[in-house]
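Q: Structure tokens for this one, please.
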Amino acid sequence: MGPYTLLARLGEGGMGAVYLGRGPDGRQVAVKVVRPELAQDAGFAARFQDEVNNARRVASFCTAQVLDHGESGGRAYMVTEYIDGVSLKDYVRQNGELSPGMLHGVAVGVAAALVAIHAAGLIHRDLKPANVMLSYSGPRVIDFGIARALDAAAGLTMTGRLVGSPGWMAPERILRQQVTTAADIFSWGCVVAFARTGVNPFGTGDFSVMSARLVHGEPMIGDLPAPLDRLVRAALDKDPRNRPTARDLLLALVGGETGDAGEAAVLGTLTAWQDAVPPAGPDPGHGPVPGQGSVPPAGPGTPDGPGHTVAAGSGLPGGPGRTVETTPDRTAPGGTVAPGATAPGGSRRGRVLLAAAAAVVVAAAVTGWLVTRDDGGKPSGATAGAGPAPLPSDALLVRIDRQSGWPSRCHGSIGRLVPTTRVATKVISDDDKCDILPRWSPDRKRIAFTRNVSATVNELWITNADGSGTPRMITNIIDGRTRTAWSPDGKKVAIVAKTPSGRQIAVITLARPQTPLLLTGDGDDKDDPAWCGSRIAFWSTKSGTQQIYTVDAATAGGRWTQVTHDEHDVNDPSFSPDCKTMAYTEQPAKDARHIWLTPSDGTGTPHRLTSEATRDMDATFSPDGAWIATARGETAHQSIWAVRVDGTGAVPVSSGDLGIAHPDWS
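A: Here is the predicted structure, written as tokens:
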């Protein structure tokens, strides 16, 4: 391609393919080659030329420097510095969420890049994790394939078309309103939240679904450390006028202050660390950048699909007939754009760009997150192995409150909640019932739940998980608003039964529910059965306080095993899928509830999972055992949160104005 030898394909996008190349001087470069059908389009040719010109206006510390461009055999191409690193998208996919220090470094570096981009009069318009490269010289924002100068924002964008990536675009872009640099700030908030949780803060779905969530939904940002929690929430404000500027973000993250004092702090950092800035690349003829010794394998850099055009339906903002041109989440190291501007001088604009440069130095040198490579060529500095487990998409069963008032008034419906989208839908449409405490059958084809009929009548019901068929009432000997538990074979259910001697843990066979097997026979209070393997867990006041016990599921009046020995009341036992670990709720005070984990045989030392500052109950393990979902908040208005079993990655997985509680995942 011109004077450049193409060595391997790095990735492919809507505009064309990106190749690893070698220049006449021996330097490794990234060569972006326009697709043939686009190269013949005069309008696109102008857009591509505009891209190159825009790229030269941005300071080179934050992107991949543009080295050359031209045409060869009727194919337009652009050459940029090759960035030896990994995209934020791929890094999180392979290693899980970023550590707090690395997260702060990425947030600072991307904010710094936006300062430089916006100072050049540009809007990126497609900022997303695939366009943030983690490199030796800090985070680099790449791929300005759809960037536009502010003074020509509508120049080459076809009327009725929207260019960008679903899930990362600001609401004003969906609504076809004026687009300013604030749109990039919204994308910055999405990127930072993704880096912390591993998922898009607005979930997943097609363009119409994502559009609705971006315009109307609330984001899930996880447990971001300060000040990122405050800054990300501000960045994701629906009104672009309320969002901070890139400069505001940068000063808050690095300078800690606004005005001259903040800028002085940033510039002072630059002075202290300027010698630590890695060079942009080797001098001509000096060979490849260290760490780039081998040629990457041919093929696309990431597995996402090609760009596509989505016809918007009448339900989308903007009305029918509008098309949406989306760019693929598929980016190669080196991207497509970068700056070639010289270092800024002492002007006001220069001071802002120097502040941005300082932020990258801080990201790379002060926070210590800089990506390095081990001898296997993989990014190091994160957890070894597969990394933290991503949030599962397996649906939870929940109680959805139709009206407020729980627990004094019950307006509960049984629903399914998909944690990665935060969308809950009702399974049963009885809007005049009090249906609570749903439980999956082992094959997830049926649901058992408790129906509270009156102060003295509670029933066990079973229905098909997909909502088909007619729910069936099994028994009305349930004692109170209590949960049930399926046997591993799905043929039996453990309940709290009302008997002359008091509340007892019992097992009913679904084929013969009239003859329950009573596992207990004492007069102490007990509740919350959970079943795993051959054991049923529950809490009892046998020792004076509520503690967790287990009994054999097939033996009437059998021996109890005490699992917990807490000084406070505990309840809500839940087994891990392998039956080895138990989660439970500790209640040291009336308004304090925390989730603890302990070996289910009662021999180990328990440890607390959730924070002292939160109020959690009703823990349930994910089917893979890597996450736990809980009901968090005041009892009258709870929401569902998920956290890994090691205590990391806490994120809200439900949304809405009314309460959602009683989760069951496994």
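A few notes: The domain at 5-291+305-375 is CATH 1.10.510.10 (Transferase(Phosphotransferase); domain 1). Residues 107 and 633 are 29 Å apart (CA to CA).
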